[in-house]
Each structure stands twice: as structure tokens, then as C-alpha cells.
Batch of 2 targets.
Target 1
Amino acid sequence: MSLRQSMAGLHTWGGLLPSWLLYVIIFAGTLACFDKELERWMRPALHQGVASSMTADQVRDWLEANVSDELHAFWMHGPTSREPFWRLGWEVDKTEEMHNVAFDPASQQPMVETLGGGFFFELHYNLHGGTLGMYIVGLAGMFMLVALVSGVIIHRRIFKDFFTLRPNANGQRAWLDAHNLFGVIGFPFHLVLAYTGVAIFVATYMPAGAQVAYNSNVEQFFSDVMGAYNREGVHKPAAQQASLNELVERSRQHWGGAEPGWISVHHPGDEAGVVDIRRFDSSRIAPPLETLSYDDASGTLLNVQNASAGYRAYTWLAGLHMAQFGGTLVRLMYLLLGFAGCAMLVGGLQVWLAKREARGTAGIGLVRALNGGVFVGLPLASLALLWGNRLIPADLTERATAEGWVFVGSWLLLALWAVLRRNQPRSLLSQQLALGAVLALGLPLVNVLTTSHGGLPSSLLRGDWALAGIDLFLLLCGLLCALCAWRCGQPQQAQEPRARRVLVEEAL
Amino acid sequence: MLLGFALSYLALLALCLAMARQHKILLQGAPSIGRQRLLRGLALVGLVLGLLLSIEQLGGEIGAVTWLCLLMLAGLLLVAVLAWRARWVLPLAALLPAAGGLTLLV
């Protein structure tokens, strides 16, 4: 067996098995390019763009007034142009549970709960499955790297067919062209994103070195590598507390006027409490590693972060993956190329199917059901989540969880539908597309009806493109779905004459 | 930015025309060896100019990333137009740089 033949088997099966998982990861990651814009869309209190007048001390005051447990840490982030509000999170001591609150800029009280755009971000990197989910995603990423490299090896005409797409050829040929096109032209993007994606959690996938060198004290390892400051709590209440506002102002001066990003406090109220203030700067690929650590009680500067060269290289790779640099332009390009990655997976699966449908290989029903349930089901369930966000009453307790159930429930129903109709893939697809058109076209309408300042007319009038962009994108998707659904009903007749012509030629 | 995209499109179009099959579709007949070399040379010039423009606008670090992204997106556009609306390929090659130049002036 030649190298190319053995790689072909690897590419087919190593690509097929994780492809639905990879689709979930890539699709969620693609949407997460605009997670903060999506979050603003999902929080009607932010639609009008009122500037928040809260300060770091006021956020801490709210926490002290409302949470009485001893905290391991809390962290907060001030308003930015993409996230014009204060967010706060905390972890109660000796629990691993995180709590999060986002403050309404106008009333300075917590906003109505929502999953926000962070839902897709978390789905992207751990499938909402904690550490286990992270391992699964990492494994899928490694499979993607294998599939990319083996794909290059088996592609005989990689340069000759570089610009070739023959949508009118027979099914398998056309899909193979499409799969090759999205894979080859988007290759640098797929390779870099798969590699950096796997690299981000490398310390978790290969923990042995750090475990041995640091006697299983992984936190010590991280603080050494990051050049950060870390000290244990002593459980003695401190007599005083430094003003966070003042520390923020001092940090700003230290950086020559640059803005702070995350502010985190470890062991708050303890004699050994530490305030870390990170710099916010999206003008470079790597996030700045200039965290300043202060004593929580006295406000003395304890440490200026001095990260190792290795860690700087690591954050550069992570930054390249996370696309927080270069503004909307870079995020838009990552979005489009991410969709190209989804298209590559869909194309690959269609090649697999087209090749085997004629032969009637076992497993075709399963693959079709998974295709219908994941490739179409996930985008539709995401639309359903946005419907849930607008329609679930604001005063419901555990509202974010209810949104999550809308997503999961609708996805399960769509998957069940795909399983039941797996033997009529064409009519299933056209009905799914019609449903997608209704869901996507309905959302801007629901947005106008349920919010006072979020609808397309008012956001366009304000020139608020970040908000209007989401509605416009939904309209575009809805129209495309409607067009495809309509076209999907047609070609059945269009294909027949061509089949007959072939027969005539054969007869001659 | 649009100009950078246009340059990437032109460079890829030149590479594409240097191939016999695409040359037959877009222009008449197969390209001569000399024309192939000329087109590939022009493509190289377009690629380098696009890269330099991106770097000039956004700095070496981010500029290189945006250039590569623009190149991939221009490739996808070119192939899509080539597959479904081959007649628009050459007009686009004039339209995109013109629009790009306009945004530079405004």
C-alpha cells in the first residue's frame, strides 16, 4: 500500500468520525467571533448605548452588600466600546462554582439574566462539558490536524484544480470540488486555527512535565511561567481596604495612560489579599502581559508582571486564535473563513455519501441522520436560542438556564426529526431550510416588537452598526435559506432531462 | 482594505489565467508559454503589493494576518464567480481595484 493510499483511508475515516463534533466546534467558534456584539443584542438594556458611570469601587460595594460568603476571588471588567457595561464574577472559597453578574449602565443594578454570546464561546472550547469537554474538543482538534495534513498528501491535483469548481457535474464530483476548494484555499486558516486551538490548552493535554517539576502544584507552575504574583490567603481579616478606583488610576499612570481591562482580587478582605490589574490593549495580536499586583489592604505595588519568552510566544499563538486584535475587520474575516471551514466539512461528508449511496453501504442512514441533525440542526437551534432570548419573560428565575433548555430542547427535536426523515434527505432539507427562513426572518421582527431601542429602524437611525449588523445578518441568512428551500424543491425535475440525454447518447 | 482585497483578487486571477483550462474559459484558446510567465510574474507583483499595502496600513504583525485572510477570501470569491458567473470575472477585475482606489481617495 502506497503512502497516498494509506493516507486516503486515514483521511476518509479520521475525517468522517469527528466531523460532526468538529462542525459544532467550528460553527460555535465562528459565531463566537462576534460574541460580544451578540451579547449586546441579547441584552436589551444595552441597546441604547448609555455610558456606564459605575466605578470599580461601586462594583465591589455591590458585591459586599449582596454576597456574604468568604470569597476565594472576584474579578471585574469595566466598560469597553464592544461591552459597554461592568461585569463581575466571583468564586466562593472552597467551591469551584463561578457566579456572574452584568450591570445595567443606567440603573447600576444587575441586568436581566441571559446566556449571552459567551454561550457559543464556551460551546466552542469545551462543549459546556468542563474539563472532560475540553479534552474532547482537543482530541477533535488533533483529528482535524491529521485530516488536514493527510488531505494535502492525498490530493493529487492540488495546484491543477486550485480554481476548479464544477457545480453542474455529477454529485460526487461537484461535492469533491467544493470540499477541495474550501479545504485548499482556506488551508492556511484551518491549519493555523486548528494548531493554535490545540496549543491553547497544551498544558492540560500534556500535564506530566509540570506535575513532576512542581510536585503537582500546577498553580505554582503557571504563576512562574506567567511571571505573575501569587500568595496564599491567611484567613485573617484585614483592618483596611485600598480603593480600587485609586489603584486603577495608578495603573493607568504606570502604563502612560493605557486603559485597564480585567481587575481581579484574590482573597478579598484577607490580610494577604492581592489586587491584579491587567492592561487592556487590542492593538497587538498577543494580549499585553503587564499585570500590576497590589496589596489589597495597603495598596502597595507588589509585583510588575515579567512573563517568560515562552509564555509570550504562547499568548501570541492564543491571541492569533482568539481574534481580539484588528477590530471588526479581522473578526469579519475570521467569521467568513470559519464558515468556509463548516462548508469544507459539509462538502466532505457529501462526498462520502455520494460515493456510497449508489452501493447502498451500511451506515448511510446513520450518516444522513447525523448530517441533518447536526449540520442543519445546530444553526436552527442557535436561532431558536435567540428566539428564546427575546420571548422568555424577563422576571423568570434562572432565565439563562431556561434559554439553555430552549437551545437543547429545540436541537433534540430537530435531531429527532432528522432521524425520522433520514431516508428522504432532499425533502427534509427543503423543509429544514424553510424553517430556517422563518426563524431567521422572524427574529428582526420579534426584535422590533419586543424591544424599545433594539429594532432595525432605531439601530440604523442611530448608526449603531454593531447591533444592526446582527439583524441584517439574520435577514440575509433568512433570505438565503428561503431561496435555497425554493431551489431545493425545483431541481428534481431539472435533473431528469439530463439523465435522459445521457441515455440517448449511449443508445447512439 | 478594499484595495488590498482587489490586489489579491488580481493576483489570483493572473495565476488562474496562467492555467490552460481557465484561460480557455475566460479568453480564447490556451495561453502561450510567454504569456503564462508574464501572468505568473504579474501575480507575484500583485501578491507582494497586497502584502506591502496591508503592512503599511496595519503594521507588520496584523497586516500579514489580514493579507493572508484577504487572499483566501479573494480566492473563494474568484472561484465562486468563475463557477456560476464566468462572464463577471473580468469586469470584477476592473471594478474591484477602481472601488478600492476610490476608498483610498475618500
Note: The interface with chain B takes residues 160, 162-167, 181-182, 185-186, 188-189, 284-285, 320, 325-326, 329-330, 333-334, 336-337, 340 of chain A (CB under 8 Å).
Target 2
Amino acid sequence: MTRWNDGTDATASVSPDITDETNALPAKYFTDPAVHEMEKEKVFSRYWVYAGHANAIEEPGEYFTRTIGDRNVIVLRDKDREVRAFYNVCAHRGSKMVDDTPMTDPGSANGIRCPYHLWTYDLDGTLRSTPRSFETAGMNPDLEDEDVPKLDREDNGLMEIHLDSIGPLLFVNFDADPMPLEEQAGTLKEELESFPLEEYELARRYVSEVECNWKTFSGNYSECDHCQANHQDWIKGISLAESELVVDDHYWVLHYTHDEGVEAAESLIEGEARFYYFWPNFTLNMYGNADGYGTYIIDPIDEGRFQLIADYYFKDSELSEEEQEFVKLSRKLQEEDFELVERQYQGMKSGALAQGQLGPNEHTVHRLHRLAQEAYEA
Amino acid sequence: MSQRERRSFVVCEACDVSKEVDDPNEAVAFYRRHRSITGHDVAWGWADFDGLESSSEDDLASVIAGLEDRFEDGVPLGIVSAAMADAGRTIGETLEAIRSLRMDGELYEPRDDHIRVT
Ligand code: FES
Ligand SMILES: [Fe+2]
């Protein structure tokens, strides 16, 4: 049920089963700065979080960085062509080493050198070399050169982060002993790996900042009850009646049929759009009317703002005219959604609502709210 | 719509996005976040803030010196970048130029993201 902030201060848990009661996640979990801090640990450090696409770093030595919460990581391909992730933090005195390097413009290096005192690491994270000042004791009268301990290459290497993938999609997990990615992904892994995702090229990245909590946008992405009223250009080509919704533990997918889809021979899927949401903040968008796919990263900036990083993959990174049109329509759709979620968030921020309620068909939103609650309580 | 147009905003042409800003340094924060995930530069679309005056100067140090009286605790980087927009500079270009002046000791930072001439 709906609960107003009317002085009673009462909220309840997200209902276990949406068919009997329909409590949403209490509003304070969307608006409280302390919740944002808590999520850095309880959500973004415990689950597998999307880091980027393997196609961006095909050659040994290529790398990009990605910031998740307060953590900056280097994702690179090593000499054995394995992809690895390291904290972008020097083992000497903790300096950030590599400048921010987006996967749209990856760097290339045969090692990682910290600019502060020039400790240098191999691509597998082991310490390769230190300057002479770390090998001799010229400045320290109490120590002889030959007594300076040699630094063990492995013990003084970079801190590695768990990395795993679904096809070319790379995920990292900061937990010391994370659940396997297979466990979090469930059937999503096999399903996505049946598509040739790696054969498509990154063609566009659009980044927008939106004035709402990241979960507000995630909820909007997860349902299409608002589409009829708000995405009139898009809805024309879609048979909503034939849509289907599948909800698994940590992901859900909305299927839509297109009036005019592309043929399967050249496309990932024929005439059907699929929108996958993978907890906590990644989506994969397959377009039944264009031969390509997109991804969204829904990155919180603070409790009241997030960044939408929208990447588009097509057969060729040079887009045809239709593809450019398609991406433009997709951008327009995003803008329409931004308006909706910003308005919703203004309402939530007013403090009037203590806890909203979900509709009987909003399973996916319900799943999102349950997952958030589970994470907070863990 | 006209209401909207009068508010200050920055744009990334490559992404075709614009972002309204109330506080000039919010533009700098946006630029930093945006650049870290795209590599793109960001420019002012329209800037209108107290104390900002369009100047015909395009020499950074004199622009900062000209603004200094109006900002006791240092000129916000966002104001400097907005002033330099008249000379066609993007936010990235202005910040880069400020950095190099600082490294030469010509500027100092009385508080974060605010500068004064030495
Ligand atoms: S902190 Fe990296 S070499 Fe000193
Ligand atoms: Fe929408």
C-alpha cells in the first residue's frame, strides 16, 4: 500500500510476493545520501558490475579504465592475451597511476609505470622495476647498500580484481570471495553467449547526466506501462500485446515484437526486441528493427544524479544512414525517459511519499526493489 | 522554452548532450566526469553568472586578473572557462592552460577549483 509521510513514520519491507501485497522500496532508499554511500559497499562491491567490452582491447597491452563507486580500475589485455583488472593504485605509496582512459579511446602500453617515483609493473601486475633510489641506501646512514632488501616481484605487485565475462562483456567484482558470475547471471550467460556479440563493433557512445537516483531510471527501464503515453513514435512499430516478460534471480528481460523487423540472417534476432536488465546497473538492448545492440551503464554520481553511458554496437563502426537514424531515435527515447524520471524524482524528493506501491504487472520493478533490499540487508 | 534557453548550459557536441548548470564550477565537474568516460571535450553553450563579464582579452592571465576583484576567495574555474568561451576556448583547453600557468607559479589556488594570480 501507499504510505505517506504523515507523521507515523511507518514503512514496510518490499512485499515478498507482488500478487498479495505491493509495497515498493521505501522512498528514503532513493533520496538519502547515506544510502548512496552504503550502496558503494553493499551493491557495487559485492555484485558483478559491468566494466566494458573486450573488443576495445584486442591487442596485448591495450587498456582502459573504469570508475565504480570510489574505485578506479585498469582493465587490460596481458601478454598472454588474457584480460585482467587491477586497482589503478601503486603498490609503493598508493598513487593513482594511469590517467582516466575511456574504452572508446583505449591506451596501449607494455607495462604500467607510476608517474610518482617510477615503479613499473608488468601487464600481469608483477613489479618489473624500481629506480636505483629504491635499491641503494645512499641517503640512509644506518643502512648499507647490500642490506637493502630486494623487493619480491609478486608480493609487491598490483592488486588484482576478479574479472569474468559473458561473451565479450567484461564484469568485475571487488569482493574478496565473490559468488561466481555464472551464479549471478543464471541463464543470462548462456542466452547472451548464443549471440555473436563479439562480431559487432562499438560505433557510438553517448553519455548523459540525469537528475534522479540510478534506481529510479532502472525502474523506468524495466517496465513499458509508460510507453503508450510517453514514447509515441517508438510504440507505433511495436506489438505491445505480444510482449513477454521473463524474470530471473538477478536479471529480467522484456520481449517485444516489431511490425517490421530485420531478417535473422543478418541480425542477432529476427523482428524481436529484447531488453535485458542485469542487476545492479547494466542493460543490454537488442533491437528487432536494426542489426545491432546497445548497452547502458547506469552509474550513480550521488543519490540524486546518475550518468547514463549508452554504447551502440553495429556490424561496422561506420554507420549507414538508417543506422544513424536509428541511433537518433534511441537518443530521443532516452530524452523522453529522462524527463519522466526527473519528474518522478522531484516528486519523491519532496518527502511526501514514504513508500509507494507497485502495479500488478510491475514484476520487474518489484524484482529490482527486492534485490536492492536484499543487498542492503545482507 | 525561452526560459530554458536563458539558463547557463554546457554542451558536448560529439555526444549531442547539453547540461544545465546553476553553479559555474558544476560545469567543470561535468567536464571532468564526461571526459573520463568519453575522452570528449566540453564547451559552454551559454553562460550567465554574477561577476562574469565578456572580455575582449584572450590572454588567460589578464582575464583572471580582470575578474579577481569580484571574487574574493579566488575566481571559480567555471567562471574563468566561461570568460574564455568568448575567445573560442573549450573548458578542457582553458583548464589545460590554467594548469600550465599554475605549474609556472603564476597562479595559486586559495581553495579547491578557485584561482588567483600570484
Ligand atoms: S607511489 Fe607509485 S612509485 Fe611511488
Ligand atoms: Fe521509456
Note: Chain A has a mean pLDDT of 94.
